[in-house]
Specification:
This protein has 15 helices and no strands. By secondary structure, it is mainly alpha-helical.
């Protein structure tokens, strides 16, 4: 059950036509939609094995599994988010157990995560003044994530009990409830926009600079204020925002937000606050996009 929830969350995120991201109707030069599909299927079994004592190992195993099907980094952020969430889910309510999972992380988890980051080799990683991934870690994983929390929204989730995911992202999907099954693309795009407006995308900040990330947040808020799904003005703003994000190659790709979207989807499906479509329905959606 956990494995299928992980896979479904990954496939839903990749298949929705989110602004600036790869999806069935928009590829990057080096990354295609099929890379994310293969990565979801490869990583899900390893992530699903995460328990309170094996978070780091599951992250490393999932990254290694992904590398066998794709030579580029498609899902490091997703794996870093989903492994501790999965460990919490195996104990019951994610909201109730995520804190104890994070507080139980060890130096050994840090070593496995450092190895996973070296394998994935994300763009714009740079060097850290302390606890750099090129060296052996000396602190538990949550403490290391705290060092990076000011510049990386994924690291920040480890220091806030996944506050952005649970407290801000989950209510966006919860309002759809059972209707999510037929309105999932709209819901996911809205979630992406609301997360970007709430927190400037730190992947954009890392690859460009903080001012560009702040501009992306402002533009996301402008799309939302224009009733983006219902009005012509809103749809025009959405298209213009998408074009701007894609205007510099993939440098302004909001990759961190996409990872957070996947995490919210996982929590929402596991908690039963939405009714998710079947994988076959996602495949039908992709086929329609390819034929149009």
């Amino acid at each position: 059950m956990i494995e299928s929830t992980i896979r479904l969350a990954c496939l839903l995120e990749a298949s929705a036509r989110k602004v600036g991201n790869v999806h069935p109707a928009a590829n990057f030069t080096t990354l295609k939609y099929e890379d994310f599909v293969r990565s979801a299927h490869a990583a899900a079994p390893a992530i699903a094995r995460a328990t309170t004592s094996t978070v780091g190992r599951s992250i490393l195993d999932a990254v290694n599994a992904t590398r066998t099907v794709c030579e580029h980094n498609t899902n490091l952020g997703i794996i870093l988010l989903l492994a501790p969430l999965t460990a919490a889910a195996t104990r019951g309510s994610i909201r109730d157990h995520i804190g104890s999972v994070l507080r139980g992380l060890t130096v050994e988890d840090s070593a496995d995560v450092f190895a996973a980051i070296r394998v994935a080799s994300p763009r714009g990683l740079g060097d850290a003044p302390s606890e750099d991934v090129a060296a052996a870690p000396t602190r538990p994983l949550s403490e290391i994530m705290e060092l990076a929390a000011h510049r990386d929204s994924i690291a920040a989730q480890y220091t806030t009990d996944f506050g952005l995911v649970v407290d801000h992202g989950l209510p966006v999907l919860a309002q759809y409830g059972a209707s999510f099954a037929t309105n999932w693309e709209r819901a996911i795009i809205e979630l992406q926009l609301r997360l970007m407006a709430q927190q400037p995308d730190t992947d954009i900040a890392r690859k460009c600079d903080w001012s560009i990330a702040e501009e992306s947040a402002r533009r996301a808020a402008e799309v939302l204020s224009a009733d983006w799904w219902e009005t012509a003005v809103g749809r025009e703003r959405l298209a213009a925002f998408d074009a701007w994000l894609r205007g510099d190659g993939s440098q302004r790709n909001p990759g961190t937000t996409a990872d957070l979207v996947t995490a919210v989807l996982f929590v929402a499906i596991h908690a039963g606050v939405i009714v998710a479509p079947r994988e076959a329905a996602i495949d039908e959606h992709v086929s329609r996009l390819r034929q149009s």
